[in-house]
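ok trying again, last paste got cut off:
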Amino acid sequence: MSDMPLKLLAETVDKLELITARTQMVALLVNLFKNTPPGIIDKVVYLIQGVLAPDWKGLPEIGIGEKLLIKAISISCSVSEREVEELVKSTGDLGKATETLKQRIQSRQAGLTLFSYTGKPSIGLTVLNTYNTLLRIAMTQGEGSKDLKIRLVAGLIRDATPNEAKFIVRYIEGKLRVGI
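nice, full thing came through this time. structure:
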């Protein structure tokens, strides 16, 4: 099955947040859908809508509240939960706070790339692996599920670019600002 970088979806969602004209929104979505492999179009649509599947499928919700999300962000960005909370207070948005933390990490690591190059270019997150991880988080239940969910979310955020991390956090929170 073909896949596409999560970056394309996150960038489109960012642009959609800034647009109020319906015709421009439709044009952006048409462009995204044209560049989406047919095998994952359903997942792209679900992610834009902020759901994992249609209601009739009966899938559980993600099951991650703000406190657990803050814990996952602090783990993935190697900062204290208090630091995440302070940044949320100043930005007013958990997604934006995560993006800021990831940008800080990226700028610190910019000088290390020459020495840490492994010979393989990083593929980064894709729509399919992100969707499957979010589905796994939702399906995780029982003893130890809270810790596993936190680790899975932290892993997604760790592997994400700043913009992708913002998208993932807002998706999990149910606060995508797409207007569709």
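cool. Residues 113-121 have pLDDT under 50 and may be disordered. The chain is about 65% helix and 0% strand.
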